C-alpha cells in the first residue's frame, strides 16, 4: 500500500490551526478546503493522462489531457463532504459518488447508511475523501465497495492518519489492488475511545456541529 505523508510547511501550519480547539467551524471549514487542494495535488500525481496534439497561436505541439474514463471522487459523509469542494477545484471533470458512513462508537465498526456509487467502476481511478483514518474500519469498507465494483486504483486523501489504522488497512486491502493513502500527517496513536492523538477531535462535529 502506498502511503505518502505530505511534508510542507504550509500544510503543517494549516494543520496546526485546524488542530487548535479554539478554531471555530467557519475557519475550520476554510482550512479543510485549502488543505485538501494541497493534498490533492500530491494524490493526483499519477492521474491517467493521454497525449493530445494542439495548435497554439504560434505552432503545433503535443500536450496532455486527462484520460477517459474520468476519475471518480468519493467523499465519505459527513466529514468527507467538507473536502469535496477543494478536490473538485483541482479535478472539476471528475464524477462524484457518495458514501454515508458512521462509526459505531461502542464497537468502532463502520455502519453504511448511504451508498450512491456507480455499479460499474471497471478500470476507474478513485479518490476517496475522509479527513480521519483512525481504526481504519471506515476506509476498509469504502475501499472494498470500490474494488468490488472493479476500481483499479484507489487513493484515499486524509488529513490525519493513526499508525494503527494504517496497519489495519494494509492488512485488509493492501494486497487486493492498488491502494494508496495521501495524508497531511501520521499522528502518535489512538486513545481508548479510538480517537486520534493528538488529532483534532471529531472532524464531523468541528465542521458541522455536534449531532446525537
Ligand atoms: O477509521 P475509523 O475508526 O473508522 O474512523 C474514522 C471515521 O470516523 C469519522 O466519521 P464519523 O463516524 O464520526 O461520522 P461523521 O463524519 O458523520 O462525523 C471520520 O470522518 C471517519 O469517517
Ligand atoms: O479522532 C477521530 C477519530 C475518528 N473520527 C474523528 O472524527 N476523529
Ligand atoms: Mg464524526
Automatic annotation (TrEMBL):
<dbReference type="InterPro" id="IPR000836">
    <property type="entry name" value="PRTase_dom"/>
</dbReference>
<comment type="similarity">
    <text>Belongs to the UPRTase family.</text>
</comment>
<feature type="binding site">
    <location>
        <position position="78"/>
    </location>
    <ligand>
        <name>5-phospho-alpha-D-ribose 1-diphosphate</name>
    </ligand>
</feature>
<keyword id="KW-0342">GTP-binding</keyword>
<dbReference type="InterPro" id="IPR050054">
    <property type="entry name" value="UPRTase/APRTase"/>
</dbReference>
<feature type="binding site">
    <location>
        <position position="196"/>
    </location>
    <ligand>
        <name>uracil</name>
    </ligand>
</feature>
<feature type="binding site">
    <location>
        <position position="103"/>
    </location>
    <ligand>
        <name>5-phospho-alpha-D-ribose 1-diphosphate</name>
    </ligand>
</feature>
<feature type="domain" description="Phosphoribosyltransferase">
    <location>
        <begin position="5"/>
        <end position="209"/>
    </location>
</feature>
<dbReference type="GO" id="GO:0004845">
    <property type="term" value="F:uracil phosphoribosyltransferase activity"/>
</dbReference>
<dbReference type="InterPro" id="IPR034332">
    <property type="entry name" value="Upp_B"/>
</dbReference>
<dbReference type="InterPro" id="IPR029057">
    <property type="entry name" value="PRTase-like"/>
</dbReference>
<feature type="binding site">
    <location>
        <begin position="130"/>
        <end position="138"/>
    </location>
    <ligand>
        <name>5-phospho-alpha-D-ribose 1-diphosphate</name>
    </ligand>
</feature>
<feature type="binding site">
    <location>
        <begin position="201"/>
        <end position="203"/>
    </location>
    <ligand>
        <name>uracil</name>
    </ligand>
</feature>
<dbReference type="Pfam" id="PF14681">
    <property type="entry name" value="UPRTase"/>
</dbReference>
<keyword id="KW-0460">Magnesium</keyword>
<protein>
    <recommendedName>
        <fullName>Uracil phosphoribosyltransferase</fullName>
        <ecNumber>2.4.2.9</ecNumber>
    </recommendedName>
</protein>
<keyword id="KW-0808">Transferase</keyword>
<keyword id="KW-0328">Glycosyltransferase</keyword>
<feature type="binding site">
    <location>
        <position position="202"/>
    </location>
    <ligand>
        <name>5-phospho-alpha-D-ribose 1-diphosphate</name>
    </ligand>
</feature>
<keyword id="KW-0547">Nucleotide-binding</keyword>
<comment type="pathway">
    <text>Pyrimidine metabolism; UMP biosynthesis via salvage pathway; UMP from uracil: step 1/1.</text>
</comment>
<keyword id="KW-0021">Allosteric enzyme</keyword>
<comment type="function">
    <text>Catalyzes the conversion of uracil and 5-phospho-alpha-D-ribose 1-diphosphate (PRPP) to UMP and diphosphate.</text>
</comment>
<dbReference type="InterPro" id="IPR005765">
    <property type="entry name" value="UPRT"/>
</dbReference>
